[in-house]
Amino acid sequence: MDCRVPRFAVFILTTLLAAFAAAQGNAPEQRTAAYYRSIRNNTPLLQAFLHDMPKGGDLHNHLAGALYAENLIDYAAKDGLCVDRTTSILIAPPCDASCDRFTAKPAIRCAYGDHVLYNSIIDAWSMRNWRGEESGHDHFFATFDKFIMALNTHVGDALAEAATRAANDHLQYLELMHTADGMAAPQLGSNAGWDANNDFAGLRQKMLAAGLPDIAAATRAKLDDDEARMRALLHCRTPQAAPGCSVQVRYLYQVLRGLPREQVFAQILLGFELAAQDPRFVGLNLVMPEDWYVPMQDFRLHMQMLDYLHGVYPKVHITLHAGELAPGLVPPEGLRFHIRESIERGHAERIGHGVAVMHEQDAAGLLKEMAQKHVLVEICLTSNDVILNVGGEEHPFPAYRRFGVPVALATDDQGVSRSDMTQEWLRAAQTYSLSYADLKDLARQSLEHSFLPGASLWADVRDYRPVAACADAPKPSAACQKFLDGSERARVQWKLESALVSFESKF
Known about the structure:
This protein is an alpha/beta fold. The chain is 50% helix and 11% strand.
């Protein structure tokens, strides 16, 4: 009997054995990648996979917009606030005495027993069930004035909620945009007035002399109290510590670019002062709709302010909303320069949104410049869809990646959008056919471009090769531990890598 095996059978057997050996070689990561490929078109399984996957950091998260309406109703009820039944705007007490459905200004606690009122408030304070005549853009930005009063005395509660949601989404790090001074800086700016000659140096000295350092000190003290409240709610540093305690939280001072110029300057100055004094404030950002009149008219003036103050405080980090625009929202000329000027004159190390990048002058040249300077873009897919109606193939996310511009996914205002980081990853994975390696890159880039101090864990981010001291992963050597002890950034990056090892071991 001829016992020889046909050549084609040998080929098939060899191929199968090679595939099996490869799967066993770098087993955890390759098996995880293989499982991910097998479920990429199965939305429920993919969502469960992405929920459990460690995701690094959320670098673009507004504290006020991160809160779900249900929590905000609870905060308002505790403070005895009223609500306008027609507009869902919060009002200071006294409220109408009755919870009758015909009262115009009931206590918001009445919503607990009135499902129509309760649901109408949630819809007015978020994008839930949005189907109105107003645009998604207008409905979205109108929510904040309706509920912001609920946040005034509950910042600590809000921090606890944001940290808890981040932990539930398997994030290791959170940078929260927060106007932490309670609008004291704008008031000081109004009192100081504007200098007709745009003398930024003189204006800075005037505001410092008028009490801006006192505002900075009060802001830091207030944050001490708010963080203490957060830790108490989460039972941090106790055996019953909640998962939110494990998330590292830092702050970007949030400047309201729609205010008068003297108020904007005062806020920018306070942001630089806070970031220079308090390690919890890792930088600053300019917020509010970019298409509104004042942000459009004063855009270049704001960049000049940043340029001057960056020279005074060169170590303070800057990230800027830029290019959160779409054709038709502003005239064509309004789309052509915001991202470039934010980088070149505003000294932005990161860009928030960047949706209008392909409308900039010499878009390809700008993308190459961003890649060369390692300017990361904070991509907010859900937000860009509901506010700008830009998504799918129209979104520049693939263009950024094609040019080698670093990107990271972010939530923007997850409470208002009724989203979370898992949904951002799900949208990206399905829309742009991302591989498992792509997902790991997004997570790692978020921490690589965080504003945490210290050296990076990576000697080379192109292949994620760790520094020599930490080459013996997954357990840190004495030399590696010394390196980690000296770098806050590297410690959080190591935490992500450890979480990824644990996640991949399940496959």
